[in-house]
Amino acid sequence: MHSDKPTQLVNIQELIPDIIVDIRYATPDNFTGRVIYPAAKAYLVKPAAEALAAVRNELRDMQFGLKIYDAYRPLSAQLRLWDIVSDPDYVADPAKGSRHNRGAAVDVTLVDRKGNELPMPTPYDTFSEKAHADYPHLPKQILKNRELLKNNMMKHGFEPLLTEWWHFDYQSWEKYPILDIDFDQLTDEDPD
Prior knowledge:
- The chain is α/β, with parallel strands linked by helices.
- It is built from four helices and nine strands.
- β7 and β8 (164-170) form a beta hairpin.
- Mean pLDDT is 91; it is low at 1-7.
């Protein structure tokens, strides 16, 4: 199921102005070493974006914030990733589509009040057992930080991906269509 309807996606920075956006695929600072996206933009389907705003509000009360590494990913970008790393253990097969291609997945971490990342099990996009969402052999503070992120995301309808502590799928992600809308085609208008 493919769709080209841009009004299904919401600009996260418009909805959550104080969120930090560090879209790694818009830079060479990612596992491919190449620029995949032409722009550092973060979009999600509206229910996921609103749920992420609820997570942000709750974390604000605890003196923490969020940093986004990735959100919506056009299918054409998924194809580029697959061309570089054709391994379904690390990159979703574009023939099946990614949850990111649906605007229903977000890669995120915690930051302190100054915007500094809290210590987590691994850097973003580290493909090792240590990056698994339940890997136990870590310092207590790192386990605590990972659990804080995971618990708050789950409380608001996101499910963790077992192999990546930073990746969360919004509930019922499968009901959203696979999209291939370039970032420059997206509008920042409310879809209602």
